[in-house]
Design a protein that fits this description.
The complex is a heterodimer of chains A (about 325) and B (about 280).
Chain A (H helix, E strand, L loop, with lengths): L3 E10 L2 E11 L4 E5 L6 H9 L6 E6 L2 E2 L10 E4 L11 H11 L4 H14 L15 H13 L5 E5 L7 H18 L2 E6 L2 H7 L2 E6 L2 E6 L1 H6 L4 H6 L6 E4 L1 H4 L5 E4 L4 E4 L5 E10 L3 E7 L6 E6 L9 E6 L5 E3 L11
Parallel strand pairs in A: 3-8, 3-9, 6-7, 7-8
Antiparallel strand pairs in A: 1-2, 1-4, 4-5, 9-10, 11-12, 12-18, 13-17, 14-15, 14-17, 15-16
Chain B lengths: L6 H29 L3 H4 L14 H9 L2 H32 L5 H10 L9 H11 L5 H25 L3 H9 L4 H12 L1 H17 L2 H6 L7 H6 L9 H21 L1 H9 L5
Classes of the chains: A alpha+beta (about 325), B mainly alpha (about 280).
């Protein structure tokens, strides 16, 4: 079991309020990702749940019990840190088994559990090495092993992949997803990388300046962002925003169109533009197009496209997928 | 970047370094030499450097006249006892200051250090009276308690500096592992900070071993350490240079050996954190 409920959780450092008040429900067994730009308070919120920071107000309810005033050690959660934070003086085996040993579990039980976990994480060959003798990926596995061996109520991950190189990051991402599915343990994962968020999460919580902007499944956030912030944050390349006359024609202060929802052609209907730059990625081509009355439009087109800078093009946004926002940046109903 | 040093320059530097080293070491060497002379030769003019009649007589006399072993035992008990007691207080204190600082932590640290700037003689009378009334004069415990208090600021400062180098995340990881504060200090912090803790113990044992003001003023015989042993050879019967030297050589020998064996650890400890 591991349901987590935040009720009006506040955090201030001195006179600076970092989290003005967050309400959130995390159901048992779900994979929830906190995502947001750096400084948005996502790590702080995770540390509040962990008990590594004291709340300034509100309640943190784990399995029906308010733990806001309980020390981290007594909350029954485990955490994987960005820096791995392994015990440098212990071997990988002792790092993983330390919590169980300190909890007074019998030696053979600790050994059995550590062996089982290291089997799952492919660590069996490295168990007698100290962290200094392990590679970044292996350290990360030890840190994950340390978290899962205790069978906690929930796992907390604080940007666990940001110290790994790109290839390893993809591999570990898949492993974390697989592990979480097989263990079905509630997981709260913090990242600033929206690809991690989209691929891992059952539910994404988008944070901005300590506030929850929107909570939903990855595709819900992609298809129906609640406001300009979420619309701009989820999706890569970023959604295009257009204000002024073009937006007013559609009854909005600002409209947003994702790069993949624009059809680019040499002639036909749509906005006139000039290609400013073209990035050929093989599978896709990203076109940066100068369009009058806009700050420039990014469009995603097929890979083998013969357009080059200076070419005149027509842009036809998919009418059904235009997002409309009011002057405060809130989403309006879609055009019928 | 390594610079190329010419042979002449290397020779000059070596000669200067050895000369400086010899000058600094000379008083100790002279003391050791004097301890093997007769009283007459000890202050003969011109002084004799190596060509004198070598004798162990002073050591025999010193051992007969006063109980060297008892003084050594007192020195060991007082210096190690005071350092261990101060470690028990200082490790949790430095842990709190390094990992859970408040706005006043810096001020508290500086205030503690400032107490070391006061001359001890300023509080001699009150402390003497308190010790007399509590029956702590000439007791090992009295000296252990006093030297512990006197050492605490330096011990806390040294440990604080070492602890600051340890990433907070490791301690947080142990909290997430379900470990309470006491076991966090014992099983996580202390093993990681072991080199720093060892240098702190070494340096403070040496300081306590050599401490002369309180040990001379608060002891007479029962708890008298080696400093009192040396002092007993100075005044009343006039100066006996050779015997005084023998007593001093005996007194500094143990700590000299300890210092020699642990010099790498000591140098590392003293320069730790100086260069990031």
């Amino acid at each position: 079991m591991g349901s987590i409920r935040l009720e009006g959780v506040r955090k201030a450092f001195g006179s600076t309020t970092v989290i003005p008040g967050v309400d959130l429900d995390i159901e048992d067994g779900t994979f929830v990702v906190f995502v947001g730009p750096s400084g948005c308070g996502k790590s702080t919120l995770l540390r509040l749940i962990a008990g590594l920071e004291d709340v300034s107000g509100g309640r943190i309810i784990i399995d029906g019990k308010d733990v806001a005033n309980l020390p981290a050690a007594k909350r029954g959660l485990s955490m994987v840190f960005q820096s791995y934070a392994l015990y440098p003086h212990m071997t990988a085996r002792n790092n993983i088994g330390f919590g169980l040993k300190m909890a007074g579990r019998p030696r053979d039980e600790v050994k059995r559990k550590v062996d089982a976990v290291s089997e799952v994480l492919n660590l069996s060959l490295y168990l007698d090495r100290k962290p200094g003798e392990l590679s970044g990926g292996q350290r990360q596995r030890v840190a994950i092993g340390r978290a899962i061996v205790r069978e906690p109520k929930a796992f907390l991950f604080d940007e666990p992949l940001s110290n790994l190189d790109a290839a390893l990051r993809v591999q570990m991402r898949l492993e974390i997803a697989r592990l979480q599915k097989s263990l079905a343990t509630t997981t709260v994962y913090v990242t600033h990388d929206q690809v991690e968020a989209m691929t891992l999460a059952d539910k994404i919580v988008v944070l901005n300046a300590g506030r929850v902007e929107q909570v939903g499944s990855p595709l819900e956030l992609y298809a129906s962002p609640a406001n300009i912030f979420v619309a701009g944050f989820i999706g890569s390349p970023r959604m295009n925003f257009v204000s002024g006359d073009l937006a007013a024609q559609l009854g909005a202060a600002t409209i947003g169109i994702r790069p993949e929802h624009i059809v680019v052609s040499r002639d036909g209907d749509g906005w006139r533009g000039t290609v400013a730059a073209a990035e050929h990625l093989g599978s896709d081509t990203f076109l940066y197009i100068d369009v009058p009355q806009t700050d420039g439009i990014t469009a995603r087109a097929v890979g083998e496209l013969g357009l080059k800078p200076g070419d005149d093009v027509r842009l036809a946004p998919d009418g059904a997928r235009i997002h409309r926002f009011d002057a405060q940046g809130r989403a309006l109903h879609r055009m019928k | 970047m390594a610079r190329r040093v010419s042979a002449a320059r290397a020779v000059t530097i070596t000669v200067v370094a050895w000369t400086a080293g010899f000058v600094i070491f000379f008083p100790i060497l002279w003391m050791v030499l004097t301890s093997f002379k007769t009283e007459l030769e000890a202050f003969s003019m011109p002084p004799k450097f190596l060509l004198f009649k070598w004798t162990l007589e002073n050591y025999t006399v010193v051992q007969e006249r006063s109980d060297y072993i008892a003084h050594v035992w007192n020195s060991i008990a007082i210096s190690f006892g005071s350092v261990l007691l101060s470690m028990l207080i200082a490790i949790p204190a430095a842990w709190a200051m390094a990992f859970a600082p408040t706005e006043r932590t810096r001020g508290t640290l500086l205030w503690m250090l400032s107490t070391k700037m006061m001359p001890p003689v300023g509080v001699l009378v009150p402390i003497y009276l308190i010790y007399r009334d509590l029956g702590l004069l000439d007791t090992r415990f009295g000296l252990i308690a006093l030297l512990c208090l006197a050492d605490l600021p330096i011990v806390i400062w040294m440990l604080y500096t070492y602890f600051k180098e340890i990433p907070m995340g490791i301690l947080e990881a142990s909290r997430m592992d379900g470990i309470g504060p006491v076991r966090e200090v014992v099983f996580v912090l202390a093993p990681i900070a072991l080199p720093g803790i060892a240098s702190t113990i070494l340096l403070n044992v040496i300081l306590a071993w050599n401490e002369a003001f309180w040990t001379l003023n608060l002891t007479t015989s029962k708890a008298a350490p080696l400093t009192a042993f040396i002092a007993s050879y100075s005044s009343p019967e006039g100066l006996f240079w050779a015997k005084l030297s023998a007593a001093s050589t005996l007194a500094i020998a143990p700590i000299l050996v300890l210092g020699w064996l642990s010099q790498r650890q000591l140098v590392r400890g003293l320069t730790f954190g100086a260069v990031k």
